[in-house]
Amino acid sequence: MVCLFFYVQFGLSQEAIPKISLSYENRPVSEVLQLIEEASGLPFYYVEQWLGEKTISGSFDNASVPVILESIFKDTPINFYVLDGQRVILTRNTIIYDELPGGFFGRKDSIAMVERTEKRTTVVNPVFYNENRTSTTRKLETVRIGKADPDNSAQSFLLQGYVRNKNTGEPLQDLTILVKGRGIGAVTDANGFYSIRLPAGQNVLRTSSMGIQGSEREVVIYNNGTLDFELEESLELLEEVVVEADAAKNVEEATTGTTQIVSEESKNIPLVLGERDILRVATTLPGITTAGEGAAGYNVRGGKTDQNLILLDDAVIYNPSHFFGIFQALNPYTTKGVDIYKGNIPAEYGGRLSSVFDIETKDGNVEKFAGEASIGPVTANIALEIPLKKEKSSLVVGGRGAYSDWILRSLDDEQLSNSTASFYDGIVKFNSNINENNDIRATGYYSRDAFSITSDSLFNYSNRGFSLRWDHKFNEKNTGSLIAANSQYRFNIDFDGESNNDFGLGYKIDETELKLKLRYLPNDKHTFTYGLAAKYYGVDPGSIEPEGSNSIIQPVAIPRESAIESAVYLSDEYQISDKLLFDLGLRYSFFASLGATEKRTYADGLPRSEGTLIAAEAVDGGDVIATYGGPEIRASARYFLGPDLSVKASFNSGYQFIHTLSNNTTVSPIDTWKLSDNNIEPQTGNQYSLGFYKNLKENEYEISLEGYYKTSKNVLDFKTGAQLLLNQTIETEVLQGNGRAYGVEFLIRKDKGKLNGWLGYTYSRSLIQFDSEFSEERINNGEFFPSNFDKPHDISLVANYKFTRRYSLSANFVYQTGRPVTYPIGTYQFNNSEFVFYSNRNEFRIPDYYRLDLGINIEGNHRIKKFAHSFWTISVYNVLGRNNPYSVFFVTEEGEVKALQSSIFAIPIPSITYNFKF
Questions:
Q1: Model confidence over 819-862: pLDDT tens digits?
Q2: pTM of the predicted model, to two decimals?
Q3: How many Å apart are CA 337 and CA 246, to the nearest integer?
Q4: Where's the TonB-dependent receptor plug domain (predicted)?
């Protein structure tokens, strides 16, 4: 009877509310409310500060006051209540209820109150805020989130937001947010973003992270909403360790084969000539290796070096190394970190089969001028952070250069003493926080290498990258990013010899991409990411021009290649239960090879050669030569076997439309990239992964064991004696075959205490097969054989021991099985000439590789008030003086075949580097 009476009374009061006509444009909310008061005769009661300074526009014709107010306060925390049809009361966050909630007087059979309106019957659970519940010893800041909604009977709500460093404005990654007394928590991602579901009502949130002052904040949550944190640094920043990783994420996330490395992790690892190198640190982790010491490029889980997508702030970097791979082409002081995906690659990434290296540059300090620099035996680095508008925008400027010629000039070898080698790179990044919903970042990058090992040839190569990113928050559930990027890689060879065959040779690849990424959080069960991307390739495959009036070189220019690559993707991180989590993604990729160029057709049933070429058709610019594409599946799952033990499985498939052309064992600066066309098909691949992940002693130790199996098709290799450079019919010199790789990766990692570091072991095999009905297109009789980078056993130990806060000792030990090599196994006579007979390709191996590096790290004093904080690194690379072979080659002397070995660093290499930060 009471409920029925309330319904009748409520209905009557609604009918008594007048309807009005109203129109307003760019008027403050307070003025609009005054207009409503005048038109309706209903007085309003509210606190004016709640309304803010926002202006609104609207137009209503014969509409009731509640309808108008619903429109005005739709996206605000303001609610309203019409009392007896005679006055309007505004509330912030809360709702005015007409009766007490069920159980208020202790009746256990009544759980919630029932509110009835004209259109609905809703079970409502009011939120009560008891100020006396807050600790009496320390008054906490109270924040109210969301607006109570009588249609929403949820017991919990989603809170999300970003956490930033108050001094620098940089996002804080891996920061823990715990709900006091409830056993609920969340961890921020690489952008400082967090998402957590809170019970309705009062909650106390506590933040915790190394180097950041802890904080507590009382949150009264009425509905889904956002809350951003700006936190102060603490002196704990000086208590840094070598390895700082989010061990909980390793167990909790669904994706397999992911690795995060922050730039600081390279600080205490002794590397060649004292250089910090975040990518070289990556090679000490399971599943990532190189073909040899000083080799550029990375082989991930048995994949080729061209199967890695390397991004710097969303722009592709084709050659991320200096000086033949000895140094990275990234300034370590402007680099924030890298996310490496080698198992389940997120659906937003495409175009490569093996891995993604997503490198992020630091955001500049928006509070004060800061910088970091170093001086070493070969290079000097500097990075400056320049605030442009306090708390809003800043600029990061980084420069790096080498002065290594003095090393070459000091060598006894006369040929090398006349050689030169130098490089430099520079980066500029602008970041601006326009408002709470919009951020803009722009990055420009350039690097260049020049070297001359002989007096008559000068080689140089360069990378260029530019990206512009706009991050926008539409509302509490929807965010997005619009990205434009351009990348270029080129190399040149200038030959100036004593004869009349001087020339200049050049190559260039350029790509431009536009990408839209969106994120939608409908509830705590689903996280949707979706978007689309389009990319345009332009490749100048090579040209040669005579240098000087006496040169007899004939100019040659291979026709330009063009193509477009596009994709659309959707993924969902679906929380089935507390134990089971799925990450399901689907990507559809499309590729079109374009003119203007020449479309060549070869006779069916015969091997491709100049003799079997039957047609060469000129294709106009923009016309399509060939198209490829299809769906790519990205699926993974995680299941908790215990509180800190999980098992994960994943399946990953993909397309790769671009290939490297090289007949070198390792990556060379003059390797060229070739787009797929009507004769060269795109590479395709599948990967299956299964792994177990365990944390011990409150995340002090991280243990993982992961296995994988990969298959690939249309892997590119070369025919014996192939001429790859300046070859217009390049398809006649290459083969496409199948690949197969499998392995097991083990990692144990310690992140806390005086002794920290990791031990990684990988057993892996990488095999390829080139079979054909034609003998000239078969390798090793069409059977699977080891790839150039097949190294079954790989062990890495990285350790750092802190004696005090200022002094520490670091060690880095590496052991690898020797890579495959092809040996001459005999000689034979033909037409009165002697020839060498070689074994099957990659049938033998060079000697195993092992190396020990040691370093002493000396921090400056920890006085707070001083201009700069210094850091000395004294290291010895290859302490044992191991003469590790870089390659083995063969010469014939007096009718006898002799094997010779070349090495990069055959003796211990000491170095000392001075770093300072201000």
A1: 898 888 777 777 777 677 788 888 888 889 998 999 898 887 65
A2: 0.75
A3: 13
A4: 274-352
Do 353 and 307 touch, CB atoms closer than 8 A? yes
The CA distance from 60 to 63, in Å, is 6
Q: Report angle CA 556, 557, 562 to the nearest 5 degrees.
A: 165
Cis peptide before 295 (omega within 30 of 0): no
Residue type, 408: L
- What residues have CB less than 8 Å from 510, skipping those under 6 apart? 486, 487, 488, 537, 538, 539
CA dist 192 and 374 (Å) reads 29
Tokens 């031990």 map to which residue? 759
What's the CA gap between 146 and 771, in Å, rounded?
64
Q: Is the dihedral of CA 129, 135, 141, 146 positive or negative?
A: negative
The CA distance from 416 to 454, in Å, is 8
Q: What is the DSSP string of 796-847?
A: EEEEEEESSSSEEEEEEEEEEPPPEE--EEEEEEETTEEEEEE-STT-EEPP
Closest listed residue to residue 871, CA positions, set 810, 820, 815, 807: 807
Beta bridge partners of 877: 909
Cα-based distances in Å from 752 to 314, 671, 796: 33, 43, 19
Judge whether 156 and 198 are in contact, CB under 8 Å: yes
Please list, residue by residue across 540-559, b when 16 or more beta carbons sit within 10 angstroms of its beta carbon and e when fewer do: bbbbbebbeeebebeeeebe
Q: What is the pLDDT of residues 655-684, one digit of tens each?
A: 999 998 876 655 566 788 999 999 999 999
**Domains located in the chain, CATH noted:** 2-124 (3.55.50.30), 131-239 (2.60.40.1120), 250-917 (2.40.170.20)
Which residues fall within 8 angstroms of residue 256, CB to CB, at 6 or more apart?
Answer: 343, 344, 636, 648, 649, 650, 689, 690, 691, 706
Indicate the pairing of strand 225-226 with strand 156-165.
Answer: parallel
Question: Is 880:834 a contact under the CB 8 Å cutoff?
Answer: no
Contact 725, 711 (CB under 8 A): no
Provide the pairing of β-strand 355-361 with 308-312: parallel
Q: Which residue has the tokens 């006894």?
A: 412
